[in-house]
Structure formats: C-alpha cells, structure tokens
Design goal:
The chain starts with a helix and ends with a helix. Strand 2, helix 4 and strand 3 form a beta-alpha-beta unit. The model has no long low-confidence stretch (mean pLDDT 87). Helices cover 44% and strands 15% of the residues. With 220 residues, it is α/β, with parallel strands linked by helices. Strands 3-2-1-6-4-7-5 form a seven-stranded parallel sheet, sandwiched between helices.
Amino acid sequence: MIDLDYLTFLENILTDNRKEKFLKILENRTNHFTIAVEDIFQMHNTSAVMRSCESFGIQQLNVIEQRYGKSIDKEIAMGAQKWVDINTFDSITNCVDTLKSKGYQIIATTPHSTDCLLEDFDISKPSALFFGTERDGLSEEILQRADGFLKIPMVGFTESLNISVSAAIIIQNLTNRLRNSNIQWHLSEEEILIKRLAWAKNSIKDIKRIEERYFAENVK
C-alpha cells in the first residue's frame, strides 16, 4: 500500500507544473505492452529502446543480461531511466516465465516471411515484445516459446533494421493504435500512485535526507 501522507509530503515539495505534468504523462502510460531485449551487445541500443519506451508510453522494459552484463548508456537514455521501470533478468527462462506469469503473450520480432505484419497484429492481448541481438537475432529458446511472431513490412533489399529503429517503429505503431482503441490499457489507480511516488522521489535532490527527516518525525 502507498503511504498517501508521504506522497502528499513529497509532492508538496514539487512545483504545480511538475505535478500536473506527471499526471498528464501517466494518463498515457501503459503496461498492456511491455518490451524485452535479449543480450544486446551494444548497450547504446538498449538505451535507445528505453527512450522509445518512455517517449511512447511503455512503462516496463525487460533486459536479459545473460552474457554481456553491460550497463545502460545514460547519455543516450537522456534521463529515460528515471521514468521507465527496468526489470533485469539473468536468464531467458526467468524472463519468459515471469512475463507469462503476469499474463503476457510472448511475441518474437523477426524478419521471417511467415510472420504477422505489424499492421495486422492483434493489439487486444497483453503482449511482451522481444527484440534480439544485432548479430544473432533472437535465441532459439525465445523462438520456441513464442506465442506469435511479428515483423515490420519492408520493400527494399535490406531484410532487417537496427534493433533501436525496429523497436521505435513497432512501439509507436502499437501504442498509437492502442490509444485509438476501446481496450482498457491505462495504468490502474494503484499503479499510478506507485509511479507518482517514484517520480517524486526521482525529482527531489537530497531525497535520502528528506526521507530520513520525514520518517523520523512521522513514524512512531
């Protein structure tokens, strides 16, 4: 449960414009779709995917760090890591099992000719969209466990795009369609409160000192 008194205390430190911006952005956030990236060797691509998630309203980014274990490039993320939830996994199995347990269907993004085209993709089901490495694509485990496959229609000689470009195209298309649908895609009231608290904390300098003062004065 969210401590509403604590939330109010923190939000009173913020400007009215800041609080209003949070509420406006949260109106367009969704967990209906989530993104997963697998062992991305060049982490600037993961950082760019994170920016696309943040820009188009995807709240959860799942990162599988089975081999390379690199960190987010904060310069490329441009602060998006403060507003997007990053879930890290040490194995493909753990990531897929977790997302399936949350009710997501696993969708592998691949350039194969038999895959569903982007404009034909059914947006009604909660979906976890998986993107693979630049060099090898998605692993065999994900391809075997996928509930469906998705590709971007292309008419040139090139059969695939850079992962960050592919993710941006797919995320923009699906979230735009989602917002123009009758699907219940918004965050729940509880999820909104959780993000308001997290974002308030991310916005306040010296938050640890302020937290210590608040709890020292208010916790009996």
